[in-house]
Amino acid sequence: ERSSFAASAMDDVNISFDDQFRIRVLDVDKYHHTEQLSEACSSFVSKNQEFGKLVNGIMEVLDANAQRIEREKLKAIGMRNKVLAERDNRDQRRRLMQALIAEKQADLDRHQKQRSSLLQVEADQRAFIDR
Fold it and tell me: Helix, strand, or coil here: 130?
């Protein structure tokens, strides 16, 4: 059985010489097809590596942009917080000023009443002296 298998395998093997007188086990057409396939595989691997480099470059650009966007986002949040804090400070100062104005207005009203009262007392005393 082995010898019949070996004999049939040997019948399929075609030994030949190429143009440079090297021994070839494959048929010339199969050898050329194998060479073309090898070149196509090498080209595919090369293109695949180039594609990988392009993808890595794009990823680096995207990462850099993402970092820049994140920095700008944090700046915007910081600016928004400053604006809100300034708004709160202005509201607090406005309320403080309004309270100060109300206090000063109350002092003015009190002083005006006191003056009016003193003027009345003065007038009453002059009238008393004049009598």
Answer: helix
